[in-house]
């Protein structure tokens, strides 16, 4: 489904519409900019929680980062970390749980305010 939405493949029959428009009439770059995607396998880099959330929007304000974290239901666990948003994550986020990493990735995607959020989750 993701491959079709992103137009890695075009449909053979029927059509997929986004906001009432057939996706074949929307340029691939424009179409892909509408989506935020969080994959099942998350990734973090060594840096603060704030920097990891703001990765896709480096000019984000603290208020925007906190709003995205709240929207992703990550704010409460972040505030329980030793330095909150300034807590430095280990390479690949080894010092937080997999579920917490996923919440941070959701916050990262939500920060860009995509028209559609795609969550690749097996469960």
Q: Rough shape?
A: elongated
**Name of the CATH first level of the largest domain:** Alpha Beta
Q: What is the string of helix and strand elements?
A: HEEHEEHHHEHE
Overall pLDDT metric: 91
Q: Helix proportion of residues, in percent?
A: 25-40%
Number of domains: 2
Class inferred from helices and paired strands: alpha+beta
Q: Segments where pLDDT lies below 50 for 5+ residues?
A: none
Strand content: 5-15%
SS field, number of helical segments: 6
Describe what is shown at a glance.
The protein is of the alpha+beta class and 123 residues long.
Structure characterization notes:
Helix 4 (62-71) crosses helix 6. This protein has helices at residues 2-5, 28-33, 49-53, 62-71, 75-80, 98-111, and strands at 17-18, 21-22, 35-38, 47-48, 88-89, 116-119. The two termini are 16 Å apart. It has two domains: 2-33, no CATH class; 47-119, P-loop containing nucleotide triphosphate hydrolases (Rossmann fold, 3-Layer(aba) Sandwich). The strands form three sheets. Strands 1-2 form a two-stranded antiparallel sheet. Strands 3-6 form a two-stranded parallel ribbon. It has a two-stranded antiparallel ribbon with strand order 4-5. With 123 residues, the chain is an alpha+beta fold. Helices cover 37% and strands 13% of the residues.
How do the helices and strands line up, and which of them pair or pack?
Layout: H1 2-5, E1 17-18, E2 21-22, H2 28-33, E3 35-38, E4 47-48, H3 49-53, H4 62-71, H5 75-80, E5 88-89, H6 98-111, E6 116-119
Parallel strand pairs: 3-6
Antiparallel strand pairs: 1-2, 4-5
């Amino acid at each position: 489904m993701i491959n079709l939405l992103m137009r890695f493949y075009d449909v053979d029959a029927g059509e997929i519409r986004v906001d009432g428009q057939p996706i074949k009439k929307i340029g691939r770059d424009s179409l892909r900019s509408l989506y935020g995607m969080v994959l099942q396998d998350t990734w973090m880099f060594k840096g603060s929680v704030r920097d990891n959330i703001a990765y896709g929007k480096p000019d984000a304000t603290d208020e925007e980062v906190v709003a995205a974290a709240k929207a992703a239901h990550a704010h409460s666990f972040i505030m329980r970390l030793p330095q909150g948003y300034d807590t430095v994550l280990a390479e690949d986020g080894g010092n937080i749980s997999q579920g917490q990493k996923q919440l941070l990735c959701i916050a990262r995607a939500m920060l860009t305010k995509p028209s559609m959020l795609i969550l690749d989750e097996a469960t």
